[in-house]
Design goal:
Blueprint: H1 4-7, H2 13-26, E1 32-33, H3 45-56, H4 69-83, E2 92-95, H5 98-109, E3 115-119, H6 124-132, E4 136-140, H7 150-156, E5 161-167, H8 179-192, E6 195-199, H9 219-222, E7 225-230, E8 243-246, H10 249-260, H11 268-279, H12 283-304, E9 319-320, H13 331-342, E10 344-345, E11 347-348, E12 358-361, H14 366-386
Helix pairs in contact: 3-11, 4-11, 5-6, 5-10, 7-8, 12-14
The chain binds pyridoxal-5'-phosphate.
Pyridoxal-5'-phosphate binds next to helix 5.
């Protein structure tokens, strides 16, 4: 009785590993988990206080569907100061998390017959949302360092291309698209008249590399880019569910119409917390970046010391994406045996459209990272000897 649309949604390949890891933990087993897609830090104190104050002041009613005007203004200021994009408040909308913003954006611009170019490896929800919007997923290879190039994008453009997904820094690879390529890809979008969803949720986690927002290049490309973001990763606010985006007025209107008949406004209290996140002190962000950078360097070095594993240096986000082909196992077998036999949970690359790799999140303490990598090394040595 279910709709074809819902029946087409693929069950998440990561879920079975995740569910198993959690079950083992519940049984008291000492599992090291590298699966988390969220910072291990707590939401900063000033943000939590802002939410408590909102409740006490009865800021608990509906807001405009696309978010409070004060929050839209704070988002416009952030876009202007950090991303160098000048969005008017009428070009901003707020949704229930970055994922919801991406959903609203894709459902607003895609329809049956359209093609959406999706670079590999990709965060799994992109593929599923494109399918829900009834468009065709056109996978696009990246280079040997998982960097998207204009040349690869150009090969995939047809007269049906409606959208390109750009996710830099990337989940799962950590790759950052070179600014020179972002400029060339922008020209392709303008010349061929397609939208670009620029998912910039990891924009702060670039460890010294430049983050370039495509919409900042010029007014022509700004009309075609939907700059999607969220407070989830930057402010350790994954559970608060506030995402935002900047786009042309037409796209924003479409997204808000859609939202008006689904979730309505995002939680008023969470919006007040997000307002404090964007306008309050930013020290916690700096501390988080510093901690992730130390872990990033350590995990990269340590992974490359393990026989059967090689890893390019992750440039951004908080993930390492090593090659495990030297183990002789496919990514699902690797992840599942590693969990069963060595109590370490990782995500198989197959879940991101890239066989031969696994994803490790380093949004976990240095101590856990050390313990987990020691176990992987020991387990892999034994497994290879047995084979
Ligand atoms: N985009 C990417 C690439 C992500 O990895 C995630 C979360 O994992 C999101 C968007 C959405 O995050 P949220 O919905 O918590 O804002």
């Amino acid at each position: 009785m279910l709709s074809q649309r819902v029946r087409n949604i693929a069950p998440s390949a990561t879920l079975s590993i995740d569910a198993k890891a959690k079950q083992l933990k519940k049984e008291g087993k000492d599992v090291v988990i590298f699966g988390a897609g969220e910072p291990d830090f707590n939401t900063p104190e000033n943000i939590k206080q802002a939410a408590k104050k909102a409740i006490d002041n009865n800021i608990t009613r509906y807001t405009p569907v696309g978010g409070m005007p004060e929050l839209k203004k704070a988002v416009a200021d952030k876009f202007s100061n950090f991303n160098k994009i000048n969005y008017d408040v009428s070009e901003i909308t707020i949704g229930c998390g970055g994922k919801h913003i991406l959903y609203n954006a894709m459902v607003s611009v895609l329809e049956k017959g359209d093609e959406a170019i999706l670079p590999v490896p990709y965060w799994v929800s992109f593929e599923e949302i494109i399918k829900i919007a009834e468009a065709k997923v056109v996978l696009c290879e990246t280079d040997e360092n998982f960097k998207l190039t204009a040349e690869k994008v150009e090969e995939k453009i047809t007269n049906k291309t409606k959208l390109l997904i750009l996710n830099s820094p990337n989940n799962p690879s950590g790759a950052i698209v070179e600014p020179s390529e972002i400029k060339k890809i922008a020209k392709l979008a303008v010349d061929n008249n397609f939208y670009v969803i620029s998912d910039e949720v990891y924009e702060y986690f670039t460890y010294g590399k430049e983050h370039l927002s495509m919409a900042s290049l010029d007014d022509e490309i700004k009309q075609l880019v939907i700059t999607c973001n969220s407070v989830s990763k930057t402010y350790a606010m994954t559970g608060w569910r506030i995402g935002y985006c900047g786009a042309s007025k037409e796209v924003i209107k479409g997204m808000e119409n859609l939202q008006s008949h689904s979730t309505s406004n995002p939680s008023n209290i969470a919006q007040m917390a997000a307002l404090e996140a964007l306008t309050g002190p930013q020290d916690s962000v700096k501390q988080m970046i510093k901690a992730f950078d130390e872990r990033r360097k350590f995990i990269h070095k340590r992974l490359n010391e393990i026989d059967g594993i090689s890893c390019i240096e992750p440039e951004g986000a908080f993930y390492a994406f090593p090659n495990i082909e030297g183990s002789g196992m496919d990514s699902m077998t690797f992840a599942s045996k590693l969990l069963d036999e060595a109590l370490v949970a990782v995500v198989p690359g197959a879940a991101f459209g890239k066989e031969g790799y696994i994803r490790l999140s380093y949004a976990t303490s240095m101590h856990e990272i050390e313990r987990g990598l020691d176990r992987i090394e020991k387990w892999l040595n034994q497994t290879t000897i047995k084979a």
